[in-house]
Amino acid sequence: MHPFVLASANDPETAIANHADDPELAFIAGGTDLIGLMKDRAALPRRLLDINTLPDMAGIEALPDGGLRIGALARMSDVAAHPDARRRFPVIAEALLFAASGQLRNMASMGGNIMQRTRCGYFRDEDDLPCNKRRPGSGCSALHGLNRNHAIFGWSESCVATNPSDLAVALAALDATVTVRGPAGERAIPFTDFHRLPGDTPERDNVLGRGDLIVSIEVPARAEGRASHYLKIRDRESYEFALVSAAAAVAVDDGRIRSARLALGGVAHKPWRLTATEAALRGASLADIEALRSAIAASFTEARPLAHNVFKVELAQRVALRALQMAGARA
Amino acid sequence: MNPVASVARDARANSMTHDDPRVTVSVAVNARVRTMTMEPRTTLLDALRDELGLTGTKKACDRGECGACTVHVDGRRVLSCMTLAAMQDGKHITTIEGLERDGNLHPVQNAFIEHDGFQCGFCTSGQIMSAVAMIEEVKAGWPSAATTDVARPFSIADLSAAEIRERMSGNLCRCACYPNIVDAVAEAAARS
What we know:
Chain A is an alpha+beta fold and 331 residues long.
């Protein structure tokens, strides 16, 4: 790794001010992504500020209304093991448990999880191949290169990478919010607005700016929360990133869907919410497979697969259907 | 576990413009307090092996992909290649060298020998450190990706071979001793 200076944060205000003033400073919490990026020279911060020392940011709180507040420094394994998280939002616990390994889940923070950068091989390559995320303006090697793992929705000529977070897919489906403190104070960002599409600035994964510190993630109470499921399809059965994944949550009355929430992972630069499908599913019978299939197909008219990932269009629809059925079985 | 008295935090605070970037930390490694001064970029893995001479912890991928470097920090299994030694100030660290008691191997170590859970041995210290902590996770009721219903409490009686394979998937064995590793972990868990 390149040389850098390390300090511990004493209070959030100073940490925010340091980060706002210093473009070469990075926060570090679990470090499981950042240290890998530094080893691959895809991130070269000159100063690291250890935020694990900040107070009151690691709690997991079951809110009286049925929601959940998760501190940004809570570890993935703590949330996945938390009885209220498991009971209220199985899709969150499952998304966490299907990610990484036991060791990494003990290290990785919730805030860091949603900040993790793409696993695109060109972005991570130590040989510094053209990549607009790694070196803005250098081009996209994946657009006409190996793009089996890449996006089918929302990509641009600048970048066809996908977001690797499983957790983010579940949080997008549940309309969670991210509470961020910045130089101008605190704000709540709807989860579906947190990550960006690449456009002409793929180096920006999300809407955070300098001096922004994730404080917590809030998951609102949901009728659909308990009947929820995360389904992840990958090249090996464990310890692998998703080819395609789906987070589904449903509220059901007498076998008919009152409301459904569906988001896909592995298909876009951000978690891909299937809003057209959700609208079409209202009132559908969970037993009517054809109705479910056509509701899901409604979100795929805009799919634009690349040379090596045409299979994702069919796979993603099957994964969405299966996730929806498995969530429905819990209703 | 009580935190180890920190020698470093005050000295390190707000040192970001300091000419000498080296940092000093105190950690308890296998119950012995050790104070180290090093560059911040030193991983915990390199500090254990190169600063303290504890070479039982293995360096294989150095990218958080294989699990060979697994150690315990405050009782939890972590990858020592993916964390900085300078961030462990005040922590308790256990390596494979710290598992034995009074010259007797840990039950998980014995189970690996009984079940022939290794060939070349390079992944073995990571496998064993991972298994020891994993069994504690099971006792604490943690579910896994192999658990059908995560909402239900999990107990050691639910620890099937499929559960063990999933929970140990962060430890790769290039010799592919997996069946024997699963048997060793199952027996150690049942006896614990």
